[in-house]
Amino acid sequence: DVKVTQSSRYLVKRTGEKVFLxxxxxxxxxxxxxxxxxxxxxxxxxxxxxDVKMKEKGDIPEGYSVSREKKERFSLILExxxxxxxxxxxxxxxxxxxxxxxTFGSGTRLTVV
Amino acid sequence: RKEVEQxxxxxxxxxxxxVAFNCTYSNxxxxxxxxxxxxxxxxxxLLMSxxxxxxxxxxxxxxxxxASQYISLLIRDSKLSDSATYLCVVNEGxxxxxxxxxxxxxxxxxxx
Lengths: 113, 112
Known about the structure:
The structure holds two protein chains of two kinds.
Chain A: E1 4-6, E2 10-13, E3 19-21, E4 23-25, E5 31-38, E6 42-49, E7 56-57, E8 64-70, E9 73-78, E10 87-94, E11 103-104, E12 108-112
Parallel strand pairs in A: 2-12
Antiparallel strand pairs in A: 1-4, 3-9, 5-6, 5-10, 6-7, 8-9, 10-11, 10-12
Chain B: E1 4-6, E2 11-14, E3 19-25, E4 33-38, E5 45-49, E6 55-57, E7 60-65, E8 70-75, E9 84-91, E10 100-102, E11 106-111
Parallel strand pairs in B: 2-11
Antiparallel strand pairs in B: 1-3, 3-8, 4-5, 4-9, 6-7, 7-8, 9-10, 9-11
C-alpha cells in the first residue's frame, strides 16, 4: 500500500512565524498535492506538483509556497502564519493520470494563535 | 455553479436501511470518478472508483450517468460503521490533467 506520511499531526504556531509542513510518499508517485480542509468549504487545493522542482498554483495559493527537491517529498511553507490559516492540511499523492485516485496523509491540524 | 455538487445532508438512517447519495459535476470532459469516505477528524480514504457501466463492491454500488453528469452511491443494509462523510470526486478534465475536484461531502449517520 502507498504510504503518505505527514510529519506532524497537531501543530500550534504563533502569528508571523514561518511554518513548514512536510509530506513524504513511498511509492514513487509523480504527483503530489497540498489541500486545506475547513468546515463547510470542503477540500481546497493550495499547490500541486507534477515532478521534482515543478510546482503549480491551486485555487488558494496566497500566503503559501511549496518545495519539491526530491520526488518523494513535498513541503508546504507558510511564509508568515496568520490566524486565518488555522486549518486541517492534507497532503496527497497520485500515480500518473487517468483512473488513479489520491492517497492522503493523515493530516496536520494547524492552529495559529 | 460548483464543479462538484452534493447534498450535504445529514442523512439519518436506521441500521439496515438502504441509502443513496447523488452528485453532479459540471465538466463534461471529466474522465475519472470516485467516492471517498472521511471519518470525523481523519483523512479521506478511497471507497471506490466509479466506472461507466456501474460497479459494485459488497453493499456499495456506484453508478455514472455521463449524459446527465451525475454520479450516485447506494449503500445497502447500512451498518453503524458506515457513519461518515462521503465525498464525490471527479478529475478536472480529460487528457494530461490530474487534479481531482472534491465535493463538500454528504454526512451519513446510521442510527441503532
